[in-house]
């Protein structure tokens, strides 16, 4: 590692840590503590847990004389690392009024200061491992930044006062780009991340061969307007389109539209981080579960892409799009007449289960729990969303949620076989 | 109503309203929003709901040109009055970060100012009804003051940081007064509240005759030390002492001691509003359910008193004791060698179901929902506790909870038949 | 005990035991094993459990050289006697295909034969206790005979094939007797069963004084036609009439009519043991919960009777009515122009919680669990129903169910205060 | 179709239909109706549903003048075909005493007779489709034959009387064959079933290319003895080996051993269709969930095979093994010193999620619901078990269950990467 690289890490650390706090600037103290459902964590928990990550995996093992901020935090802010020790029950994160928001910001300061000391110790024999873990910690924090925004949206959605996180720009696009089908010939491809390259999570490795049949993939995402046609065609009332597990949820949860859609006076509205606004028919549909994505695709006689199919097409595109840095914090219509929206707007459901790549080895120790233990019953999503930081996403990135989850910005890109 | 009476009501209104806020003074903003279980409400909800009560039952119907503080509050802070309109689901009170604590204090100010205007309009034809409802509103607020303290205790108990509400005095009594049995001859007695007398809730009326057999009642409450003997005798493991519904809870909830008892290093501790402290064997046992009270009494070959039995003995005692005004906020040992602890310390479980007195008529309109609709499956408790305001309790007062409830300061006084 | 008494007990034993089997004669083998809800037991379980009762409380303790039929039955057919030993989980009674129906009938034979031997040993020093327990066992079996019929009705109601237990007579009464109000002056009354008299359960004792205000009680039961008026007036949609706990059930269980009512082609039908038939407007409403009974009474500006009120009026009536022996197995219209329907037709909900009488002592040993441990959260019903054996019911008899229970033949008689 | 083929189908129909009844021969009438958990169906339901399949998909559409046996059966015995009409709730199959066992056998007779008439109409234009569906119906019935045995085992396991289905032979093998690792070089392989070949379900098609890395696969299944080592090493107490979802179940369901294992006097026993017997350390471990299989493999530093890996090795083996026809009805030790146990003994968990093959098209119409709608959250198992009919299994066969399911005969074969 060169001096420049070290300075750059130092700077990136400071920036990412600051970003989390900037995201929370619009919040009232009371907003920091709410947990609406077990999947959602209180904003202050995110702020504390990301600090706990640096404290646990870097400061405690590597910084001599490091003084723990509060001995209870090891338990309180461990998310799920069984090998680290006990952790507070996930569903009870919203029951903790203490530590206060002020104390948690002090905790962040404490951790930041110590981390800068540690990052300056470039002559330590463990320095390469310190750098490696620090980079993981920063990516980890960026993931939680995304969760901060999706969770705040969910928290506000439970409040009849309809709080607004921030005024949002509506953009200027009032049409939908035509959809065309990109064809990709079959054959053996390599997917996944190289061991020696840019940062990647262990679940993106190793790079490996897959055989793919020829296929077509849609040039852009499915729009709200297109999804409304499915609804008008009775999509939520016809089991023929649905996976069996999905149909059970439709019936027991009485799903009739994507999450956050609200019908008022015969008109559809949508709750956004900028408040309730009229549904934009040109914008990509969002906050749908895999079950809804699958049913929609079925209704169209199409299918969802496999994750390998998505990756080999997406990696030919530049990593730009409606990501968090664009500032919309809401999916926007595609105005580009080409392959569009692969990065940003919404996470795209694939038909691929989240499972280990051939030759996969989880990281050693507790950090190995980061990804590997979740490899059952979840589904891969690709491409990032309008609340994903630009420098966090890449073509090989594998996000994963349960097929019924809807509180993320998750949407639909279609594919089909060439026969 | 004389000028003096009006001035006194004015003053009492101001005092009671201020008391609620004084009780919240030790809280952090974050503490105001927590709801641990559906029974418990967030402190800020109590502050708002008690204001809603005055706004709904007094300001809106009687104060000309009254300007509602926020139109959403009618829904948000209605507890359960079906005839008033919709209400926010009880179990979701802790999911509301907004209105903020600051806004709720402003709401209180707004309601207080308007109420003082209304109370000054003594020439209104409705003034007697205004006074009547205002008095109910103040008693209502005092009930919520008690809940504020019991709910804060519960909220803090869920936090591994073990927050302390306030440093509490331990008192000087380190012995238990001897227990003796007060005998009361059988016959026809009158119980309940007179229509024309001091304030009473509708559920205490009408005054009516009951026939009682001769009985004995214990001179003081059961102590922690006595309850420990029951535990050491295997009380929580022997179904013979238990009501069937209670035994089911013992097994499914794994009850092994009263709520808030914690065993550390072979020693019992108790969580209090002043933090965790060593169990005082001389203090009355508290935070037991009816099922535990019943099982304990069974084990002693005694029984719980009927509410009429309790009332005819208690009304001979002065209304003094370890009530909120004493400042202990925790049950204290009896040092008096006579009939003791009828008021204060802990609410005393009776064996009487909460049901209407002969000739009972609920208040008319929505206020009739205050008490009458809860007259099933609940049990009467008598005498107030260490967090009940002194001027709120009386011999005829009927409190009621479900037999499995334990988060109130609830304890045991024994009785027996004379045969 | 005289020779005649002994002969009579012998004869009664034989008769009651035979009755249980006669009631099961219309069943297919498959019907014997079904448990629809935890409250309902499979018919074969009733047949076995009543035998287990004699085996456990009589044969094992008193019959020398008694040979247990099957050692597993002690566990399988114990209902809830904690002091006897373990018992099979109540909710899993329907999961036992073995023992077969044939084996259970053999078990009954085995127990019957041994019991007749025991009952012939009149010179045993324990003979009085044997007689006492045998009589309890016979009343116990009669209670289960009633449950057999209510449970079979429930079991058949879950089957889309709508099985018929037996063709039932419709009776000849196609009008409703006029309702008048019987007045009873207030004062001290004695209620409950004498220690030395006819058989009574321990929960009916001791006879004791109560003070009652003057009241009026309806001369007959509320009819289906009258209850329909409540429904047409929006009774199931107006929370003002309902107890709070009841209103929650109305909403979560979507109650809109009594259990077993079915609407077809704008017409109400009722499921009966004789199959589905048109609702008889003149017959008493049945299969309502306490909550529905209370809401109906509230809507009428009446109330439910206290159990003492019911008893002092009912005991002046002869014990006749539409009981099981009448053979209708369905409530029938009152044609009598006087105090009517106190016995039979439907169990009448009172407003009295099921609690111990003053001076109550539970039976000793495990038999004490028969009644006493259920004295919380349940409500007293009086008078027997159309499936209660004639010689099983009496004025002092206290039946008890939870306020939400509806699978028994339970109905409504109104009362009111005289003011 | 030749005359011979038609005769052979006729014969096969008769044989398969008879087999279902032969499997039920050891049952008492009472056994036919039990449903222990929603996954398990009552034996009589299996007998009726398999007949409903022929009636619905063959007799009603194709047999002129076919007279439905009972119009209610269309609803009662539809399992989950949404496009066919309504169906009885799955969890309530055990609440139906009617139709009786006798009526269901009559239903089978009725359907059989009509089917033989239909199969004789070889000149019908639809005859090829009739043949196609009939073959599906027979394979469908064989699947239910397997379920009959696994469900009977589960039903008997809930009964403290420990019923025995049939006396079972113990076999003669009292050792475990050595385990060796079969190596398979990487490359592009074809897997799946040919469209034109032997019968296969739609989910096995189309035959398609996959790329596989080099790997090793174990020559035989993991034994009870080997699995015991994992248990002794604390496998059920160490979260490090477990998938996150699995660890939650271990804790909430208190899993400590495979299903049906019972510890008595410090010794492990196993419930089998032949009764409780001492655990055979040499026999393959069975009745483990995917979570347990995964944890075991993790503990060994191995992994589960992918379904494609399994298939390309297994298809080189003859389809023989401990299948139903061998009569053991219980997994048996491997005595073969080569690649062993690929067919029979236990279904082998793979690490592959159950998802559509590239180019997959579900069957058209309601029959398309047979397999396709279950392609989420389930996992593929391969190879058949000791209760699978010999002529039902093949190398391409894909069975699927949820990762927590344990009531099937499911076990473990290990694999590893070659690196």
Mean pLDDT score of chain A: 96
The oligomeric status of these chains comes to: homotetramer
Major β-sheet profile of chain A: 4 strands, mixed
User: Low-confidence segments of chain A, ≥5 residues, pLDDT <50?
Assistant: none
Order of helices and strands of chain A: HHHHHEEEEHHEEEHHEEEEE
Task: Give the strand order of the largest sheet of chain A, numbering strands 1, 2, ... along the chain.
Answer: 10-9-8-11
Number of strands of chain A: 12
How much of the polypeptide of chain A forms β-strand, as a percent range?
A: 5-15%
The helix-and-strand class of chain A reads alpha+beta
Total domain units of chain A? 2
Give the C-alpha Rg of chain A: 22 Å
* Helix content bin of chain A: 25-40%
Inertia-based shape of chain A: globular
Please write the CATH class name of the largest domain in chain A: Alpha Beta
Please provide a written account of the structure.
- 4 copies of one chain form a homotetramer.
- Chain A has 419 residues and is of the alpha+beta class.
- Chain A has 2 domains: 3-157; 181-417, paralog of FGE (formylglycine-generating enzyme) (Alpha-Beta Complex).
- Chain A is built from 9 helices and 12 strands.
- Chain A has helices at 3-24, 43-62, 73-76, 101-119, 127-157, 224-232, 244-253, 290-299, 307-314, and strands at residues 181-184, 187-191, 208-212, 215-218, 261-264, 267-272, 275-278, 347-353, 379-382, 399-401, 410-411, 415-417.
- The first copy, chain A, has a 4-stranded mixed sheet. The first copy, chain A, has a 3-stranded antiparallel sheet with strand order 1-4-12, with helices on one face.
- In chain A, a hairpin with a 2-residue loop joins β6 and β7 (275-278).
- The longest helix of chain A has 31 residues, at 127-157.
- The first copy, chain A, is globular, with a radius of gyration of 22 Å.
- The termini of chain A are far apart.
- In chain A, 47% of the residues are buried.
- The model of chain A has no long low-confidence stretch (mean pLDDT 96).
- Chains in contact: A-B, A-D, B-C, C-D.
- Chain A binds chain D through residues 80, 82-83, 188, 208-213, 239-240, 242-247, 290-291, 294, 303, 306, 351-353, 355-356, 358-359, 373-377, 379, 403, 417, 419, and chain D through 80, 82-83, 188, 208-213, 239-240, 242-247, 290-291, 294, 303, 306, 351-353, 355-356, 358-359, 373-377, 379, 403, 417, 419.
């Amino acid at each position: 590692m060169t001096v420049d690289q070290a300075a750059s890490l130092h700077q990136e650390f400071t920036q990412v840590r600051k970003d989390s706090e900037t995201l929370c600037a619009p919040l009232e103290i009371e907003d920091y503590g709410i947990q609406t459902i077990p999947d959602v964590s209180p904003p202050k928990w995110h702020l504390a847990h990301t600090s706990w990550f640096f404290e646990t995996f870097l400061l405690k093992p590597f910084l001599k004389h490091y003084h723990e901020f509060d001995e209870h935090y090891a338990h309180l802010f461990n998310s799920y690392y069984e090998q680290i020790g006990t952790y507070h029950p996930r569903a009870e994160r919203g029951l903790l009024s203490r530590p206060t928001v002020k104390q948690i910001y002090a905790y962040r300061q404490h951790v930041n200061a110590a981390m800068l000391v540690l990052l300056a110790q470039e002559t330590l024999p463990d320095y390469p491992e310190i750098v490696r873990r620090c980079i993981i910690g920063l990516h980890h924090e960026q993931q939680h930044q995304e969760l901060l925004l999706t969770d705040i949206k969910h928290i506000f959605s439970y409040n009849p006062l309809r709080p607004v996180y921030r005024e949002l720009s509506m953009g200027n696009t009032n049409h939908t780009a035509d959809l065309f089908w990109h064809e990709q010939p079959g054959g053996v491809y390599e997917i996944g991340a190289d061991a020696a390259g840019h940062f990647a999570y262990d679940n993106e490795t190793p790079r490996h061969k897959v055989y793919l049949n020829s296929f077509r993939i849609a040039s852009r995402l499915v729009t709200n307007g297109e999804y409304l046609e499915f609804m008008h065609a009775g999509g939520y009332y016809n089991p023929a389109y649905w996976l069996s597990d999905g149909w059970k949820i439709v019936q027991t949860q009485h799903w009739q539209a994507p999450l956050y859609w609200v019908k008022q006076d015969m008109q559809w509205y949508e709750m956004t981080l900028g408040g309730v606004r009229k549904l934009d028919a040109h914008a990509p549909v969002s906050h749908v579960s895999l079950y809804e994505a699958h049913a929609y695709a079925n209704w169209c006689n199409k299918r969802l892409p496999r994750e390998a199919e998505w990756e080999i097409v997406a990696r030919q595109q530049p990593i730009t799009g409606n990501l968090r840095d664009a500032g919309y914090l809401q999916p926007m219509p595609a105005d580009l007449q080409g392959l569009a929206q692969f990065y940003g707007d919404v996470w795209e459901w694939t038909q691929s289960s989240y499972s280990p790549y051939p030759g996969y080895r989880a990281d050693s120790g507790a950090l190995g729990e980061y990804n590997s233990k979740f490899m059952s019953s979840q589904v891969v999503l690709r491409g990032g969303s309008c609340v994903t930081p630009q420098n966090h996403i890449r073509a090989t990135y594998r996000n994963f949620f349960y097929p019924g989850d809807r509180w993320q910005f998750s949407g639909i890109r279609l594919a089909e076989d060439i026969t």
